Amino acid sequence: MTFNPVFVASHVEKPDWYSALGKYAKPNLRIAMWQLLSTLSLYVVIFALMIFTVKTGYSYLITLALSVLAAAVFVRVFILFHDCTHGSFVHSPHWNRNIGYICGVLTFTAFHDWRRSHAGHHITVGDLDRRGFGDITTMTVEEYLAAPPWQRLCYRLYRSPAIMFTIGPAYYFLLRNRWPSERAHKQDIHSVIYTDVALVVFIALAGWAIGFKTYLMVQLPILLIAATFGVWMFYVQHQFEGVYWARHDQWNPWKAALEGASFYQLPSMLQWLTGNIGYHHVHHARPGIPNYYLQKCCEEVPELQSVLPLTMRGSLKSLRLNLYDEEQGKLVSFRSLKGHPRLPS
After folding, report:
1. CA distance from start to end of the chain
2. Given CA atoms 93, 10, 279, 21 in this order, what sign does their dihedral have?
3. pTM above the 0.90 mark?
4. Does 344 reside within a domain?
5. pLDDT tens for each residue of 50-87
6. Residue 74 near residue 61, CB atoms below 8 Å
7. 182 within some domain
8. Distance of alpha carbon 33 from its chain centroid, rounded?
9. 179 lies in a domain?
10. Based on the structure, what is the number of domains in the chain?
């Protein structure tokens, strides 16, 4: 499936409420710097404590307990990186890039390469004819029924929680991010090279200072736990009951924003750690709004409050939704096709 930016639905008029979002899409340097310094400082402190527990012979269970906290902060670092890719964290494009590169190295992700693929995600979300750009692969029922057995098996394995939230995250952050994405531009390729080189240098210095074994015992659990949680967050943002999908000739970007992205209701601490990204419908309505204004925007624009929140308990139902049924206009499970005449019994 190829991406053509000409397909963007510019013919669809912006809704009246869109102009009200403009005042929130203005970065605040004081808030941004506090977020950056407090988040990075907290990450460094926990990382150092983990090194201390390993080097002094404490039970590795204590190190792993600390890794959960570090992973949570790792996710927040990624949210700051995410804002920088949208140019929304601070006013200056130069400093959005610089901060983005720093946070990208810390989260094993190349700034420019991820920025381009993520931009593709934003302008294709909910469009059945333009799937495949920074999203969770989703087949329609008809595509699944028409696929050969080996392809159906691969898809079922891919959508299995046992793979998607274990092997998948590890592969993505440790291996997939180490080379440019498909159709990468020169700048994107350079960003991957710079990030990979920076990681090699950092790991070499860490190995020299504390030992490679200690570094791996500290960094690996942080990365794996954070990656798993991050993939879950991205999954549930666009895979839930009632999610909007449409063919391109009927696709509406504003419905895709409000109905194709979830309003994930999280406890206060998780909301802080995830940089308010649970207000994902707000983010898709206006990607230029920094994370620290998403909640305020939602609370002050009535149209954004019309989106029903997705609770943590309700989000678990998303795990059984695997295919999009175009006839019913909703996601369905593999089990719903049991006994279908086009599938082997």
Report:
1. 31
2. positive
3. yes
4. no
5. 999 999 999 999 999 999 999 999 999 999 999 999 99
6. no
7. yes
8. 22
9. yes
10. 1
